[in-house]
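User: Structure please.
Assistant: Input sequence and predicted structure:
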Amino acid sequence: MSALTIDITVPRAAFDVVAQLEVTSGHALALVGPNGAGKSTVLAAIAGLVDGTGSVHLDDRDLNNLPAEQRGVGVVFQDFLLFPHLTVRDNVAFAARVSVGGWKAAREAAQPWLDRFDLAGLADRHPEALSGGQAQRVALARALASEPAVLVLDEPMASLDVEIRDDVRTDLAGYVRDFGGPTIIVSHDLDDAKALGDELAVIEKGLIVQRGTLAELAAAPATPWIARFASR
């Protein structure tokens, strides 16, 4: 069983983000906390998108010694960040090129992901022609097409309309369970955290202040914010 272990410090203007966490294969951790607490900074440090000190280990391999593209971390951003000039097929194939090389081979490798995420009928569309739920599926397929060892999702429901969130949340929870590697999901929404995470970790002002199941957090909240969040 693989384990992602992080022990990082990332300087910020208001405070340093200091996080120690471990997530094992097949386990999804929901990282929650107030706005500006450092949630997205933790994910960016794992993915190699911000500079910090410390270590990000996947088993015995320190990812901090590797550039972002070699870390094996699949990322789904809050706004999905699909390439607007590429079709759905080529957005997914772009990630597959990391492992197979060349557009022809990458498009062939992308096809199973298009099928799995029910995107084959949308393969020739560009991102501006997609709904929010469709764009999310493309972003997740792109993240997984590179065959990552670790999956991180930054507020994956935030850009979706309220009326489709329940259905999309259910689908996303299934995809996360099927992934099989260590997964961290940033969210400020209790429903998302409950549906997507096996466990919650709470960060406030750059520090991890409590970790546990929702029931454990509700029974003995370490801070007033946790008490309010867990009782919603």
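The chain has one domain: 3-83+147-230.
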